[in-house]
Amino acid sequence: MPLAIVHHPAFCADMPEGHRFPMNKFRRVAEQLVADGLVAPGGFHVPRPAPAAWAALAHERAYVDQVFSADVPRAVAREIGLPMTEAVAFRARCATAGTVLTATLAMERGIACNTAGGSHHARRAHGAGFCVFNDVAVAIRLGLSVGAIRRALVIDLDVHQGDGTADILTGDPAVFTLSVHARRNYPVRKRASTLDIALEDATGDVAYLAMLAETLPGILSRFRPDIVFYNAGVDPHEEDRLGRLSLSDAGLEARDRYVIGAVRRLGIPLAGVIGGGYLDDIDRLARRHTILHRVAAEFV
């Protein structure tokens, strides 16, 4: 059975020409996965858009309604950094549902990956940092509410601190939030995760992988989650225009293989989301994001 991969065409919403968010990467990631043979044409698992009730499990209902009606206050839209159009709102619903479906498939098959997701700056009250809805937080709240899971672990290795995920989930004994990020990077005001590991600039592959080896096994053995949500952001890369940690392509691949291997050897389901990545060369960026899917396919 091939790796279950979730994708929706709406993951790539229309954006103004020259906008700094690389929206086209989502389309290119899907195309790359088909070209590489990881997915047969028409073989993606396609989510249905998330209803408001799902989003409201992690966000204030007033904000959810604003997004659904594409009527977000100007100050909030500025903090999000995206034009809050109907297309962007629909994209947020589909990406959120994509992570919910990814989690469902992971529980059934052991591992599954989204071609979007990881919107970890979206807080309870509103979105921020290119993140409209916090898809991982929604998926966890939904899974807990219907009894599909009792305990969830978030492993967030995006270069930026998962402040929104911490805002929504930290303090819930059913959830452990781990954020490994660059100390001197967005957001300026961090929110406390269950465990935050703030790294210095130019950490590099060797020190980064050693940190994971020292940290992850203990969390997995002590917390014993029913599912792991893995945010495999590629913005720690040395070429990334928003990253600072100086990882290489080989380092990212080794990172993903270590995390996924550590989780799956314990028989814990893993739902992978792609997180952040910022590069003008969309083809190279998309190829980098598909490291997650290529490595995950080794564990099917």
Task: Tell me briefly what this model is.
This protein is α/β, with parallel strands linked by helices and about 300 residues long. The protein contains eleven helices and seven strands.
Strand and helix layout:
Blueprint: E1 4-6, H1 25-35, H2 52-55, H3 61-68, H4 74-80, H5 86-109, E2 111-114, H6 135-145, E3 152-156, H7 163-169, E4 175-182, E5 195-199, H8 204-223, E6 227-231, H9 249-264, E7 270-273, H10 282-289, H11 291-296
Parallel strand pairs: 1-2, 2-7, 3-4, 3-6, 4-5, 6-7
CA radius of gyration: 17 Å
What's the total number of strands? 7
| Biggest sheet strand line-up | 1-2-7-6-3-4-5
Rounded mean pLDDT is 97
Please report the distance between the alpha carbons of the first and last residues.
7 Å
How many helical stretches? Answer: 11
The amount of helix comes to 40-55%
The helix/strand order is EHHHHHEHEHEEHEHEHH
Largest sheet: 7 strands, parallel
The proportion of residues in beta strands is 5-15%
What does this structure look like?
The chain has 300 residues and is α/β, with parallel strands linked by helices. 41% of the residues lie in helices and 11% in strands. It has helices spanning 25-35, 52-55, 61-68, 74-80, 86-109, 135-145, 163-169, 204-223, 249-264, 282-289, 291-296; strands at residues 4-6, 111-114, 152-156, 175-182, 195-199, 227-231, 270-273. Helix 1 (25-35) packs across helix 10, helix 5 (86-109) crosses helix 6 (135-145) and helix 8 (204-223) runs parallel beside helix 9. The longest helix has 24 residues, at 86-109.
Provide key terms for this protein.
300 residues, alpha/beta, 11% strand, globular
